[in-house]
Amino acid sequence: MHKESELRPPLILGDKTWHDITEDVCRPVESKANKWWWLAFSVSLAAFLWWVIAVSYTIGTGLGVWGLNKTVGWAWDITNFVWWVGIGHAGTLISAILLLFRQKWRLSINRSAEAMTIFAVICAASFIVSHMGRPWVAYWPLPLPNQFGSLWVNFNSPLVWDVFAISTYFTVSLVFWYSGLIPDFAVIRDRANTKWRKRIYTILSFGWVGTAKNWQRFEEVSLVLAGLSTPLVLSVHSVVSMDFATSVVPGWHTTIFPPYFVAGAIFSGFAMVQTLLIIVRKVLNLEDYITIYHIDMMNRVILITGSIVGIAYITEFFIAWYSGVEYEQYAFINRATGPYWWAYWSMMTCNVITPQLFWSKTLRESVFATFIISIFVNIGMWFERFVIIVTSLHRDYLPSSWTMYSPTWVEAGIFIGSLGLFFTCFLIFARVFPVIAMSELKTIIKSSSEGAKKKQQH
Amino acid sequence: MEKRYWKGVEELNNDPEFARLRDNEFYEHLPVDEVLQKKADSTDSTSRRDFLKFVGFSVAAASLAACEAPVKKAIPYVVKPEEITLGVPNYYASTFADGNDYCSVVVKTREGRPIKIEGNEMSSVTKGVSNARVQASVLSLYDSARLKQPLAKGKSAEWAQVDGQIIAALKEQAAAGKQIAVVSSSLVSPTAKKALAAFLAAHAGSRHVVYDAVSYSGLIKGNNSSFGLSVIPTYQFDKAEVIVSFGADFLANWLSPIEFSRQYAETRRLRNGKRALSRHHQFESMLSLSGANADKRHKIKPSQQSAVVASLYNKIAAATGGKAIDAAATPFDKTLETVASELIAAKGKSLVVSGSNDSNEQVLVNAINQLLGNYGNTISLERPCLLKSSDDAAVAQLMNDATAGTVGAIVFWNSNPAYTMGDAAFKSSLGKVPVKISLSDREDETASQCDYVCPDHHYLESWGDAEPYKGSYSLMQPTIRPLFNTRQAPESLLRWAGFSTDYYSYLTDNWKSSFFGQQSGISSSEAFWNQSLRDGVFQASFFMGGSSTFIGDVSAAAAALTKPASGPEIVLYEKTGLANGNQGNNPWLHELPDPITKVCWDNYFAVLPSYAEKMGWRQGNVIQVSVGNATVKGPVLLQPAMADETIAAAVGYGRTKAGKAGNQVGFNAYPFVSLKGGSLVYHASGVKITKTVEDDYKLASTQTHHTMMGREIVKETTLAAWLKDPKAGNHPELIASHDGPKTPAELDLWATEKEPGFERPNHSWGLGIDLNACIGCGACVVACNAENNVPVVGKDEIGRAREMHWIRIDRYYTSDTTKENAEAKGLGKLDMYGEMEVPAADNPQVMFQPVMCQHCNHAPCETVCPVAATTHSSDGLNMMAYNRCVGTRYCANNCPYKVRRYNWFKYSDNEQFPYNMQDNLGKMVLNPDVTVRSRGVMEKCSMCVQRIQYGRLEAKKAGRRPADGEIKTACQQGCPTNAIVFGDFNDTKSEINALFNDGRSYHLLASINTKPSVFYQTKVWNREGEAGHSHA
Fold it and tell me: Which of B326, B607, B870, B881 is least enclosed, having the fewest CB within 10 Å?
């Protein structure tokens, strides 16, 4: 049993009992959805349909329906890919690293954050497939035994590393998330009063009975998976950054990319967690579980990682100057003052300036300010990837091939559609899965004896 | 006793043989041992495994058969033609002569289809080189806009029917005493001229009028006034040390550009110990290809040209004792002093040419050349040029006669005046001619107004000959059966003149009777014909008799010159691709970027940026330009190096009845052509320009950024600096390190002393590009298109920067601000880069650089491909396996040279791209040795790997190594200046090794250490008093 100092403020407010927690978490699963949920779901689904149309059109007609050209071979596609992968990182950080560091405050938010990871990686993977010229052979970058003779993948290519990184990441995250869900599914199963709910949750809960042995194994699996996930927090985005860092494109060929990308990923991931949870705690009445303390904690992470990212931006400029390389210098001058200056300065404003507001405790603890700033960070981090990809490519070595890039409705559709896909998944998750790891959460409420003492005092 | 039954009479008799076999279990011999021994290759038994295989195969075959597979019929020859072997190309010598260009060619055919045109090295005129239009001409053969049969009154008809009606109509007109006129462009075929003469002789009152839309009649008239000879002389640019051109774009279009480009490049090449360059001055109003290559380019307004020529004449006359003329001072007199002194210093080794069609200006130019003693050296009247023979005055007379109603019948042969003369006036004249016949291959602007259209063959289906210079002959032979029910134009004329011979017999007879006697080496006329046909050319020993003393009246000529005008002027020019517009439906030519502007699929009004600013025009604004009665609307293009207050427009665009690809592309600028003093004039003053309120017009360009931004991309130097140091201008690209600047090789992580790089056990192929020889014309681009099945993508896709060309020619302008002078100008880094983006508006220098895949030996593209679709060969080629490509485009992103091209769409069989790869006819041009790429894969220059492989196999069959120069890439072969050299670095004696070891050779972007197999050679200018390098 978790013991905490009397002096520490409680992680869960409202004098919850174990039963209260079960009731609060199971309520959305067991009751009917309200009209706000349906409205959000309809909008998300409509956006997702746009995704379906835009992706089908792309695959049916050719990538020419996007705005890419001979010089800018990647733009929104890979911007979105990196953005989504980055967002996913917060979930893993919360559930794995914070578990290892025994940060109990994570328990209110890890379930949603992990769900966010899974859905974000799905969105990211969709961009990998749809940006391919021949998506019907999308399995070729996998090192599968094949009938093509001695043909193998190119292990030198960062895109192959990417395939490994993303698929490992997805698998581990999914298993971690699901294993955590098992006891909670069992709770819903045990409370189920309809036939189908009982059947479904029986299957989903894998025969969990809550014995000590069950719990022991559960703890062990959690620890092992946390151990596996922890390096992934650092490695996945490092590998993603190598898509750029190992190239020869000025502006991409940068050794600081791995740590810079990891910091950026956590930064954007926490911002997305804030965006989602501020809505979720309100809509699902979970203010007692996802408290101002959580918001404050996450804002501190945003402040730190935002500052790291800011330093990285400045370091890039310093190194460009220090390297004495003509192309490198021009790439960065062009970033800040060239035709895409607005993208660069949007990035700087959103990613470097806005998170600095979190030095103020008032703003850190303001739900409204947090929400606004988290949106800014989401936008800023999207622009960061756009700036890295498009402004580096559009003016590289030979000025004769310099071009401009502008997106088409199809690319816009796929991006907005991927948001639709994400929120559709998340909204379904919020309705059918316990959004808070209730079984684990119960370990951190101040135990009932505290309550008994309080009652005695009265 | 038990009953016994016998198996046979042998058992009853107890035959000894039977007794022996009875002991065996099986009566008959079983081949057990044989089966067991043969196990592996058993063919006479079926094991269980085999059975399963058969079952498996049958099931698979049955299920495959159940799927509906597209049926493609490849029918083998039942009786194989003797000379055609599937997969082996045949080459036939022939001649391209379309009244505009002349080129002796070799046609490559595969399975009976002409697929590629190459220069004929046996020709003494074109010497194996060609240009973009010649290269593209093979596609015009497979043009679906060609007529499939003759037309009578707009309806399909049979030849007999058309012939009958035409013969009757001509007779009727002749009987009525009306004229019968044949209007043709310049004819270079002696036999066709003979056939035409026969036609004229058969019809009383008939005459032949030569009409060229872009006319040289002033040049011919000028020579007549100067020497009493109505000829064009032979120009020998290769013998000239100082070249001065007044508006003559001899590298792109003027007179015989293929020949002149090759000659010019010889004077610019610093190879094999040659240490001198010609010096080239160009006086012009718009930036032409020749002007871009000139050492000194002088901007003049079109109306100033004659005065400048006159002023130069006076300066030269003063120094050489010639007769002075009345010439007003020009603002260029100081420059002209220098030019004159340079010309005089190179007396007998200089050449002055003018592109003007004004005979008076040509008289002065002739007088200058005469004073400089150039006749007999760089110019010769002894072997006149027969390429152009138009007579503008005769054309005007014919039109007047037609208006007056005295013309009874008119035959248009390779002539499209309804398009080139401006529709309205011509139409009213033509309306008064009762019988109108066109020999056009398509229902073009003129043919559609004719009563009869008798379509001519394409030249690749034709018999014919040409005589570009007096005594130089070449033959044209068919390389494919006529695709449609067409007939050769001279044969039609012969038919109407009452001859029943076919043109082939007529041609052979003429060669045997007229040309056989001009040689003495071959004794049989049959052998003479066969050898001429095989070689494609025949050179007669010929000298023109008579004197060529200068008899011109320079004072009279000077008095009649055009006077400089004030106010806006317009100058017309031909583009390198489309020229006069006769191949107007050829998508390869439309998609060939203009060498200067890099715009495809359009013409435009080019204006100086500062003038446009003054007038309030921006790029793409639609302006209306009026000269006299002619009013044309078109977009503005900002073009540095234009003369002030001058707009330039290309003719050859705005076709309305060329065909699907060429219709409504650009605007027709021919209406601005006017007739003055019996000659057509291609510039005008007193131009009225108004800006319209129309939406901006989008011009599609393959290059939107025009300066080198201070990077050493095209390395350049001056002759003086190069003479001192062969590495002048060729700075090593060093990388800053802790221990000072280092070469990329020193910092290489992978190369060690033991293993300096990849092994090249057999060959190490490479390309060398001499930037001094390259004139930027783009012939290589079209040659590559033809060789490598490069798709045409159209204007819209070009506008999205998605051209598919495997080779491009980068064109850079210098800017006023350079890294060197930025500090002096007080500019910070940001301002410096900002200003370096702007080309020097007034008169920037122009640099060209062909860029194809550099076949890097440390290729950035190869390492990043996830599926190893692009890999390196052991002979130095960067290869592309289209079938393996999944289309991530990472390779293209990582290519520093941006030479990779992505198939954004399916470019074949797609209605969105209605060009040659859409219909079966157009597909006949495809090279069967090169895959047609599918959607979603990357492609790029393969260094013509199919040609390399072919050359290697030929050598292998002969048991030898490929000889140096035996294998040629398409771009190399198409290049009119031999600027591209292909070869094997492993062959120490190869030309490419010699070039590579020259001080001028460098790798593009060497600092990235990509180690390309392609290298460039520094551009050396013959400009005095300039520093060794000025890169901006």
Answer: B326
- Strands annotated E in B610-764: 622-627, 630-638, 646-651, 674-676, 679-681, 683-685, 688-691, 700-701, 716-718
Tokens of B848: 């060209």
Test B888 with A132 for CB contact under 8 angstroms.
yes
**What distance in Å separates the CA atoms of residue A91 and residue A272, rounded to the nearest whole number?**
10
Give the mean model confidence (pLDDT) for residues B142-161: 93
With CB atoms and an 8 Å threshold, state whether B892 touches A70: yes
pLDDT of A2: 53
Strand, helix or coil for residue B496: helix
Fold of B716-1021: Alpha-Beta Plaits (3.30.70)
The predicted model scores a pTM of 0.90
Out of B864, B865, B893, the one facing A393 most closely (by C-beta) is: B893
Residues in B touching A399 (Cβ below 8 Å)? 705-709, 711, 713, 812
Residues of A in contact with B736 (CB under 8 A): 323-325
Question: Who among A70, A132, A247 is closest to B802 (CB)?
Answer: A70
- Name chain A contacts of B892, Cβ cutoff 8 Å: 70, 73
In a domain, A158, yes or no: no
Task: Tell me whether residue A434 is in a domain.
Answer: yes
- Chain A positions touching B715 (Cβ under 8 A) are none
Q: Which of A377, A382, A431, A430 is nearest to A123 (CA)?
A: A382
The complex's ipTM? 0.93
Residues 53-82 of B with CB under 8 A from A: none
CATH class of the structural domain B565-701: mainly beta
Interface of B with A in 697-736 (CB under 8 A): 703-711, 713, 735-736
| Residue B13 pLDDT > 60 | yes
Given a cut of 90, whether residue B794 has pLDDT beyond it is yes
Q: Given this model, what pLDDT does residue B934 score?
A: 92
| pLDDT for position B1032 | 36
Homologous superfamily of the B229-385 domain (CATH): Dimethylsulfoxide Reductase, domain 2 (3.40.228.10)
* Residue B474, φ and ψ in degrees, nearest 5: -145, 160
Number of domains in chain A: 1
Burial class (CB in 10 A: 0-12, 13-18, 19+), B61: exposed
Distances (CA, A) of A376 to A275, A294, A380: 10, 19, 6
Residue B728 to chain A, least CA–CA distance (Å): 21
Q: What average pLDDT does this structure show over A356-365?
A: 94
Q: How far is CA B635 from the centre of its chain?
A: 26
pLDDT of residue A447: 55
3-state SS, B827-850, equals CCHHHHHHHHCCECCCCCCEEEEE
What is the arithmetic mean of pLDDT over B105-130? 94
Q: pLDDT of B882-904, one tens digit each?
A: 999 999 999 999 999 999 999 99
Nearest to B800 among A69, A73, A395 (CB): A69
Query: Where does the pLDDT of residue B744 fall: very low under 50, low under 70, confident under 90, or very high at 90 and above?
Result: confident
Whole-number pLDDT of residue B541: 76
> Mean pLDDT score of chain A, rounded to an integer?
89
Which residues span the domain enclosing A262? Answer: 18-144+229-447
Q: What is the pLDDT of residues B902-948, one digit of tens each?
A: 999 999 999 899 998 988 999 999 999 999 999 999 999 999 999 99
Under 8 Å CB pairs connecting chains A and B tally to: 173
B280: number of CA atoms within 13 Å, CB side? 29
CB-based contact B887 A132, cutoff 8 Å: yes
Rounded to a whole number, what is the distance in Å from the CA of A423 to chain B's nearest CA?
27
Residue A348 lies in a domain: yes
pLDDT of residue B545: 58
How far is it between the farthest Cα atoms of chain A? 84
CB contact under 8 A, B868 and A153: yes
B-chain residue closest to A159, CA distance: B866
* Pairing mode, strands B472-476 and B537-539: antiparallel
